[in-house]
């Protein structure tokens, strides 16, 4: 059963070494993410599952100890999912979203529960996302989710997807749903519109919607903004 969840964005710029001179611009967002991880630890889960968007080679399960790296972003920085216990021998590495999550967990000194990761493909259909969420929530009596995912990437002229007037409304709907822990509203997010707005968090958010069915969580939105033309949210459900 889902007992707690946190939603955080997953730009590699969240990692100060990647952001370099611009690291200070995301201090507030970074702090909110670490607070959210702290709420997950306080919930005393039996298992933490990290869910994030992934390209084809990063999809599927990633056990605790799976390595990740930010070398592709020009930084000599490696991470391991969970950050403690034995490293696993794996030919696979974490997709960027889960590498950011691994960095957050290491920064928060996570030791509250075993960790596993799940990379989810952006095209995954809404109903299948919710099915996956239900399956994750059923894995133990006390399951926590750390959901990594961004909103639209079309909030400004300099955004990765350029300016789209629909983006602000889409992100506002996501923010409301997260703040109210409204699983129905997350489940109803428009897949086609999300794809057009390059909202990489749509599928992980709908996994959360499935996991939260029947749990009646309380929600709190800790951060909402679009500092680089991309919608970022930090929320906690407990």
Structural features:
33% helix, seven-stranded mixed sheet, Protocatechuate 4,5-dioxygenase, Chain B, two-stranded antiparallel ribbon, alpha/beta, 9 strands, 238 residues
Could you please describe the fold and organization of this structure?
By secondary structure, the chain is of the alpha/beta class. It has one domain: LigB-like (Protocatechuate 4,5-dioxygenase, Chain B, 3-Layer(aba) Sandwich), CATH 3.40.830.10. Helices cover 33% and strands 20% of the residues. The protein is built from eight helices and nine strands. The strands form two sheets. A seven-stranded mixed beta sheet has the order 3-6-2-7-1-9-8, with helices on both faces. Strands 4-5 form a two-stranded antiparallel sheet. Strand 4 (67-69) and strand 5 (78-80) form a beta hairpin. Helix 4 (126-137) packs across helix 8 (202-211). The chain is globular and about 45 Å long. The termini are close together. The relative contact order is 0.22. The model has no long low-confidence stretch (mean pLDDT 95).
């Amino acid at each position: 059963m889902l007992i707690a969840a946190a939603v955080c964005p997953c730009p590699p710029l969240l990692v100060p070494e990647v952001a370099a001179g611009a690291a200070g611009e995301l201090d507030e967002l970074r702090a909110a993410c670490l607070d959210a991880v702290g709420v997950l630890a306080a919930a005393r889960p039996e298992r933490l599952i990290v869910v994030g968007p992934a390209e084809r080679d990063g999809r599927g399960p990633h056990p605790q100890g799976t390595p990740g790296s930010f070398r592709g972003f020009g930084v000599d920085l490696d991470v391991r999912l969970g950050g403690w216990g034995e490293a696993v021998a794996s030919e696979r590495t974490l997709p960027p979203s889960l590498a950011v999550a691994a960095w957050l967990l290491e920064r928060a000194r996570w030791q509250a529960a075993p960790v596993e990761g799940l990379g989810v493909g952006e095209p995954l259909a809404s109903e299948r996302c919710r099915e996956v969420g239900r399956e994750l929530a059923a894995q133990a009596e006390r399951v926590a989710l750390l959901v990594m995912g961004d909103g639209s990437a079309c909030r400004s002229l300099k955004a990765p997807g350029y300016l789209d007037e629909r983006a602000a409304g889409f992100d506002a709907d996501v923010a409301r749903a997260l703040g109210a822990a409204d699983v129905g509203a997350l489940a109803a997010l428009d897949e086609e519109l999300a794809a057009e707005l390059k909202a990489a968090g749509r599928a992980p958010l709908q996994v959360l919607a499935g996991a939260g069915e029947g749990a009646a969580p309380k929600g709190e939105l800790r951060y909402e903004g679009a500092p680089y033309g991309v919608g970022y949210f930090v929320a906690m459900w407990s």
